[in-house]
């Protein structure tokens, strides 16, 4: 691919052609359909390289080494913590009706507790018994957590690391399999100008599968759930495999933007995924109609987004200010933060500029974006105003393709999108004129002066009465009438 072919759409379509050419969905390694398990990570490797743009590789490597050392210390600390706290061990759990794989990237609420905004509202209103299990977030536990019956996968991670150290339950690839994967890697590297080693990626994936599946089976045997909730299914293929073995239905709760270009969910034509949830609880009909999932459409239910709906009611009395909020993301933060700084320097702008960090930028932004420190811009992390309060009081939001931008529209915020790699995710919003794109700071200033509010069908994107919708659907599923 040439450097001019840098849109997400062109990369995605070339990726599909590559899959077709090498029949990747039909191939097995060690008796497992491996491609569906590594597909997202491989595609992400391409898109991250393209999105990073001008960030120097040397700096990325230095940051990676620094993080690796800090994370190693945190990992050891976490292992010691869970080893002596048996109540955190999911292998010692008791029988529950519903098992939830919650989201470790929690949000700090006004009550001083860390919420999983996707599941806690549902759990708190649910009439069924439940247990939640999650991993740590960058080797940190978000505590105190709102979730009442919460365990951690950290104990399982400890057992898997122990097996790795002792080289137990290791998958051994045949010479034929290694030659095949090397051939695919070479072709991939030539096509996408991105060096990947499928031998290593696939070997690691299948070895982890072999080591971790026994623990997942034990958890399911202990809990005996009738239903499983999952936030973000890609990366959890092994757990879903264990659920399917025991014929326990898996429901994914939507947590992000889902489009044709999201290979964690988009499986066009013949493509399928055996380790995919049985059902999806989507935000609204929009998310059902604009993508081809590997399950039937009658198993995708428009439920809504409880946290978003509750928050809009909470902040509905707040008046709009002459305020612009930038919605950052790790792969675009370097560029977007510089645009925010330049915008803040514009004379007679008449808008206050706020930069809302992504959770993964909170601990690193001062090193990553030092130009923000003395810019006069208010930088907001997890301890500042919540995202929804910012939306409630802001007139304009700026970003690329974050889920938060859809949420901002729900609050009536006018939307401007930086024309950068990944904006394809928002093509439907651009086509319908709900959002406008800009190319640089000068263009952004012009758009700010001219932008007007547009119609946004909130129910189409985020169905109302979400908690009632969940309760109704759960009752039917538990009673076998889904």
Give an overview of the whole structure.
Helix 7 packs across helix 8 and helix 11 crosses helix 16. The protein has two domains: 1-304 and 463-482, Glycogen Phosphorylase B (Rossmann fold, 3-Layer(aba) Sandwich); 311-461, Glycogen Phosphorylase B (Rossmann fold), CATH 3.40.50. With 482 residues, it is an alpha/beta fold. It has 18 helices and 15 strands. The strands form three sheets. A seven-stranded parallel sheet has the order 5-4-1-6-7-8-9. Strands 12-11-10-13-14-15 form a six-stranded parallel sheet, with helices on both faces. The protein has helices at 8-21, 35-52, 57-83, 120-125, 154-166, 175-192, 198-223, 237-245, 286-289, 306-314, 333-344, 365-368, 387-393, 403-410, 427-431, 441-450, 458-461, 466-478, and strands at residues 98-101, 107-108, 114-115, 130-134, 150-152, 227-231, 250-253, 279-282, 300-302, 323-327, 352-356, 378-380, 396-399, 414-418, 435-438. The chain is globular and about 65 Å long. The longest helix is centred in the N-terminal third of the chain and has 27 residues, at 57-83. Helix 11 links the parallel strand 10 (323-327) and strand 11.
């Amino acid at each position: 691919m040439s450097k001019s072919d840098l849109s997400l759409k062109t990369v995605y379509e070339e990726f599909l052609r590559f899959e077709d050419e090498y029949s990747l969905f039909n191939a097995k390694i060690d008796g497992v359909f491996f491609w569906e398990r590594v597909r997202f990570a491989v595609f992400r490797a391409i898109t991250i390289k393209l999105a990073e743009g001008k960030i120097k590789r040397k700096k990325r490597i230095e940051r990676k080494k620094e993080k690796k050392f800090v994370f190693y210390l945190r990992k050891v600390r976490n292992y010691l913590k869970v080893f002596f706290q048996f109540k955190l061990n999911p292998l010692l759990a008791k029988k529950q009706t519903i098992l939830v794989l919650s989201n470790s990237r929690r949000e700090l609420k006004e009550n001083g507790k860390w919420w999983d905004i996707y599941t806690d509202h549902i759990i708190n209103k649910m009439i069924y018994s439940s247990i939640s299990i999650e991993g740590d977030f960058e080797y940190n536990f978000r505590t105190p957590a709102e979730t009442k019956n919460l365990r951690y996968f950290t104990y399982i991670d400890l057992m898997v690391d122990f097996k790795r150290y002792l080289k137990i339950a290791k998958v051994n690839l045949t010479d034929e399999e290694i030659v095949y994967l090397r051939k695919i890697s070479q072709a991939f590297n030539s096509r996408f100008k991105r060096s990947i080693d499928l031998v290593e990626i696939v070997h690691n994936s299948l070895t982890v599968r072999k080591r971790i599946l026994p623990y997942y089976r034990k958890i399911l045997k202990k809990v005996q759930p009738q239903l499983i909730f999952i936030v973000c299914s890609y990366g959890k293929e092994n757990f879903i495999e264990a659920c399917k073995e025991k014929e326990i239905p898996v429901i994914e709760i939507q947590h992000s933007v889902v489009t044709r270009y999201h290979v964690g969910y988009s499986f066009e034509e013949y493509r399928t995924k055996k380790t995919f949830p049985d059902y999806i609880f989507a935000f609204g009909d929009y998310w059902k109609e604009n993508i081809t999932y590997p399950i039937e459409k009658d198993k995708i239910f428009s439920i809504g987004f409880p946290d978003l709906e509750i928050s809009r009611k909470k902040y509905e009395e707040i008046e709009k200010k002459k305020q612009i909020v930038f919605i950052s993301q790790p792969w675009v933060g370097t560029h977007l933060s510089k645009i925010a700084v330049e915008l803040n320097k514009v004379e007679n702008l008449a808008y206050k500029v706020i930069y809302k960090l992504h959770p993964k930028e909170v601990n690193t932004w001062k090193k990553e974006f030092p130009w923000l420190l003395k810019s006069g811009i208010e930088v907001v992390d997890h301890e500042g105003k919540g995202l929804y309060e910012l939306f409630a009081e802001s007139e304009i939001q700026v970003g690329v393709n974050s889920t938060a931008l859809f949420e901002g529209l729900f609050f009536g915020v006018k939307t401007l999108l930086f024309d950068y790699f990944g904006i394809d995710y928002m093509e439907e919003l651009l086509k319908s004129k709900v959002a406008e794109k800009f190319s640089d700071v000068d263009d952004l200033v012009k758009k700010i002066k001219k932008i007007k509010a547009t119609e946004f069908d909130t129910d189409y994107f985020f169905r109302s009465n979400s908690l009632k919708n969940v309760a109704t659907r759960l009752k039917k599923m538990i009673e076998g009438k889904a």
